[in-house]
Structure formats: structure tokens, C-alpha cells
Amino acid sequence: MPSASTGDLRFAVIGAGMAGILSAVKLKEAGLNDFTVYEKAGRLGGTWRENTYPGLSCDVPSHLYCYSFALNPDWSHLYSPGDEIEAYFEGVAEDRGVLRHVRFGDEVVSCAFIDGRWHLTTDQGVHDEVDVVIAATGVLHHPKYPDIKGLDSFEGAMFHSARWDHDVAIDGARVGVIGTGSTAMQIVAAIVDRTEKLSLFQRTAQWVMPAVNPAYTPEERAGFRQDRRLIEGVRDSVAQLFDHFSDGIINAGSPEMEMIETFCLDNLENSVTDPELRERLRPDYRAACKRLVVSTNFYEAIQKPNAELVTDPIEALEPGGVRTVDGRLHELDVLVLATGFKVDAFVRPMAVTGRHGADLGQVWADRPGAYLSISVPDFPNFFMLNGPNGPVGNFSLVEVAELQFGYIMQLVERLRAGESREISATQDAMERLEVARVEAAKNTIWSTGCRSWYLDDRGIPAVWPWPFSQFRREMAAPKWEAFDVRT
């Protein structure tokens, strides 16, 4: 099993975003240097490379949305902009010697488990044979386009928010934005003052959690550089707040959830002065039932004189703009589709074939699933970061990936020590966990009566339904009885 060239295991890491860079750094720290990172694009960065729209930032404070082993004293703001986040990940990759392991512009199209090893093929015709695959393919990278009549008939500039066309002039233009998630609200706040007219097409109103986004002063950044403990203190404080948040959303009747709803309601009532607009912005479901939007200035932006909230449903697109069901044509020069991503794709469309010819596409025909969002039965030595059913509800996916990778390394150590050759979750363990997860999901805020991308085809939240502290405990050490370990 060990690689002939090094006497150790050979790895393939698929994806060079946040989780792929993490994987490469940690493999090197463990002395496991025989690996290749396959990246379909020409640069690092994952979702922070793909998304470049105006106003882009992370809704997790920056000092928590970074690696614990590479704390950054120079974040500009509490919630830093996207280009800063991308530059941070690129800097970590360069500093930690990751780049020499990356094959850019080489997308893995198939993985097949044959005679105890994984055989990979890329779209450039490269073939690789490895002992362990780490799928760090991310969640937010396959754009989802709306099903709207006449979508291709619009004669202005039109693009998905994750494919922002910076050659298109926004200044002085009539701009429409379809969608009301975090992305749409960030875009509206960033560009409204540049446009002649901005029309936000809202299908569903969103609760907005108020936030402030102060810039760190030069003195504060100098203090962070001089004393790591100051950054750790900020991280700990933010992590505690997120733990309280998780305690709320997984118990719809909790005091924490009541407090979240109060913050959101007060934000709406105190920020929107026009009673009619306020009612159109008022959701008919509970706060955090959908992924909670965190914003400092959306309500201010949508009340600008040149901004319009359109709540009549869209009937069709026409050459000149968007026609709503009331018969009105909203004439536009630019249309932005802030309509999200195919969040159930995970490693797909890559073809993955496991033991005895098991096809992951068929295994996931109804819906994707994985034990602890890491391992799928009969796909040995194939481990995912931020896979199905993990904690994605307004948490730091950097922290999630770090915890998961620590867990995966404990599985890898058994392979490395020669104690086993193949490790994957058992079907029984996965089914037991899924039964418990579905039952626990009934108590969460996500099950209280809204439509969201958290829900699967059954209307059940497809995410971690327990406290985040429980996820940390689960990631501390594998329960070996849950794994099919073959020697």
C-alpha cells in the first residue's frame, strides 16, 4: 500500500479552496508529502476566487474565519471583504509550500477504487493512483440559475453573481437583482448609489440580523501582531457567541432563539420608516428558519430614492427587462442573478466508483449523505471535508474543516501504521446516525415552516441538528465500531 517513491501513503486532494489548502498544510505537517492537489481553475481560493461581486464579504467575523494555525493580525474589519479573504488563503498556501503540490487547470472527472487504491482521471488526461482521496470540493461553487420563462431573451447584460462581469458598466445604469439572500443584499448595499435605478426582485422576504463592521485601527492591528493572545481572545469571544447561536437554532423554543428573533424584529421595526415597505420586507416565517442574513446597511440601501423593492412575482424576461405578473415591464440595462448554488452537488459531477462498483451518483440518487459528513459506506479511504449533513448554518466552515481534518488524520494514522488497508463508515452506523439526525432536526428552527436551501427533497433540514459543541466532541476521536476497517 505505501507509495513506492516515498515508502508512505500517497494522497490526492481535490480542490484548492479553503479546505484543500488546509489539507495540504496538514499533510505536510504530518510528514505526508506525497500528494497532489487537483484544482479545476487557474488559481487558488475556491468560492472566494469564484465570487468577486461588489460588496462581497463573509458573514462570519474574520478572526474566526481563518485557520487556527495561521492567525491574521491584519484583517481590516470585523467582517473583512472577499478579496482580503482570498489574499489570506493565497498567502497561507505560499508561506506553507502548498503551491508546488497543486496542478492548476486540471479537473478530476473520475475516481475509481480498484484493487485497494484510487485511480483518478482528469479532464487533461492525467491518470493518478493514490491510497487516500480527500475531497475538498466545497459547497458554493456550482451556480444555480433560475427557471424563468424567456431567460435567454434579455438583451442587456446578464450574469450570475458568482460570475460577475466587471466589464459591464454599473454606474448610471438601470440594474435589476433577482434574489434576496446574503449575496443579493450585499450587492444592493454596494451598488445602489452607483445606479440610476436599482430594482430588487424579491420572492421571499428575509430576516436581517443587525451588525456593525468597524475597521480595526492601526494600533489594534499592531497589538494583534505583538501578542497572539489578543487574537485568540477575539476568536474565543466570537466562538462563544456562535455556540449560543447554535444552541438557539437547534431548539426552536429556546431563550436564545427568542433573543435572535427580537434582534431581527427590532432591526426591521427601527430601520424601515415607510410602513408599506416595512410590511413587504417582513417575512411570514420565524427568524433563522432560512440562513440568517447579517447586514449593516441593507435596510438603509433599499430605502434610497432610486431603489425599488419588487414583490410582484416575475412572469418572464423580455428583451427590455423583467415582466412581472401585474403586467409591468421593469426596463433594465443589467440583470444580476443572485440565485445561489447547487448546494447538494458536493463532489458531483465527478464520477466516483467505490467498492464492488458502487456508484456514488446512484448511492446519492435520492439525496446526498455521509457519516459525520466525512465518509460513505463502501467508499474506503475517500474522505470529504464539509460534506453532506454537516454544520453549515451560519458557522465558520474553516473551523468545521479543521475539526474534520483532525478526525480524518486519526483514520489515516491507522492506514499509515499498516494496521488497516481500507477504512469507511459502516452502513449501520450511517443509518443510525441518519435516523437520529432526522429526529433531532424536527426541533430545529429550520423545521418551522419556510422553504430554504437547508431542506432536502423530503423537507427535512439536511444539516447538523445538534449544538456545535457536540460536533466538536464528535470530532475529537472516531468511534471505531462505526467503521468498516479491513486489513
Itemize the secondary structure elements and their pairings.
Layout: E1 11-14, H1 18-29, E2 35-39, H2 47-50, H3 82-95, E3 102-104, E4 108-114, E5 117-122, E6 127-130, E7 132-135, E8 157-160, E9 174-178, H4 182-191, E10 197-201, E11 208-210, H5 218-226, H6 228-249, H7 255-271, H8 275-280, E12 293-295, H9 298-302, E13 307-310, E14 314-318, E15 321-324, E16 329-331, E17 334-337, E18 351-353, H10 360-363, E19 382-384, H11 397-416, E20 422-425, H12 427-441, H13 468-476, E21 483-486
Helix pairs in contact: 1-11, 5-6, 6-7
Task: Characterize the structure shown.
The chain contains 13 helices and 21 strands. It is an alpha/beta fold and 487 residues long. Strands 3-2-1-7-19 form a 5-stranded parallel β-sheet, covered by helices on one side. The protein has a 5-stranded parallel β-sheet with strand order 8-17-9-10-13, covered by helices on one side. The termini are close together. 42% of the residues are buried. The N terminus is likely disordered.
Short description:
With 487 residues, the chain is an alpha/beta fold.
Radius of gyration: 23 Å
Ends: how far apart?
11 Å
Strand arrangement across the biggest beta sheet? 3-2-1-7-19
User: Helical percent range?
Assistant: 25-40%
Q: What is the global morphology?
A: globular
| Contiguous runs where pLDDT drops below 50 for at least 5 residues | 1-6
Mean pLDDT: 95
Give the percentage of residues in beta strands.
Answer: 15-25%
Q: Indicate the structural class.
A: alpha/beta
Major sheet attributes: 5 strands, parallel
Helix segment tally? 13
What is the count of β-strands?
Answer: 21
